[in-house]
Amino acid sequence: MSQSNSQPILATTVPIPTPTASASSTSKSLSLRKNGKSWHTSHQRPAFRPTAGQTSYAKRLTARVAFTATKAKEKEMKDEKAEERQTRIQAIRDKRAAKEEKERYEKMALKMHAKRVERVKRREKRNKLLKS
Fold first, then answer.
1. Which residues make Cβ contacts (< 8 Å) with residue 120, sequence separation at least 6?
2. Is 38 helix (H, G, I), strand (E, B) or coil?
3. What is the pLDDT along the chain (132 residues), one digit of tens a residue?
4. Which residues touch 14 (CB under 8 Å, ≥6 apart)?
5. Residue-wise over 12-35: b if at least 16 C-beta within 10 A, else e?
6. What are the Cα distances from residue 13, in Å, to 7, 10, 16, 47?
7. CB neighbours of 26 closer than 8 A, spacing ≥ 6?
8. Phi/psi zone of residue 125: left (φ > 0), alpha (ψ -120 to 50 degrees), beta?
9. Whole-angstrom Cα distance, residue 29 to residue 25?
10. Left, alpha or beta for 53 (phi > 0: left; psi -120 to 50: alpha)?
11. Alpha-helical runs (H) found in 14-56
12. Rounded CA gap, 125 and 131, in Å?
């Protein structure tokens, strides 16, 4: 089966970029592998260089003071917002309670005489003031 006169099988050649080639072709050859897959630089980790302890104490102290001042301001603003919200909610509750009381007195007025309704109103007001 050996053939002495047969020609050797030639492999396909890949063009090698020359130094005179444009920058776009060199950047392309750097970013793509021979098989067409891209080179992932995200997998390469930088050298481990710890940064802890490199800032001065005065710098850390000023940063800490600024941070606490910011946090205090944020808390103050948040408290103001919550207080405004609570006052709005309380005003709505008061309006609803007044409306319900008015409707209740109107129902009583339909059933009873006007003088008796006034007496009941006064008595309830007195009891309310005594409870609070």
1. 108, 112
2. strand
3. 555 566 656 556 656 665 554 544 444 445 677 887 777 766 777 788 888 778 899 999 999 999 999 999 999 999 999 999 999 999 999 999 999 999 988 888 777 787 888 888 899 888 887 777
4. 34
5. eeeeeeeeeeeeeeeeeeeeeeee
6. 17, 9, 9, 37
7. 17
8. alpha
9. 6
10. left
11. 23-31
12. 10
Distance from the first to the final alpha carbon of the chain: 116
| Amino acid (1-letter code) at residue 37 | K
Please state, in angstroms and rounded to a whole number, the distance separating the CA atoms of residues 103 and 107.
Answer: 6
Alpha helices in the chain (DSSP H): 23-31, 57-111, 114-131
* Among 38, 20, 12, CA closest to 29: 38
Q: Is the pTM of this model over 0.90?
A: no
User: What gap in Å lies between CA 83 and CA 60, rounded to an integer?
Assistant: 34
Helix axes of 114-131 and 57-111: crossing angle, nearest 10 degrees:
150
Name the residue type at position 72: A
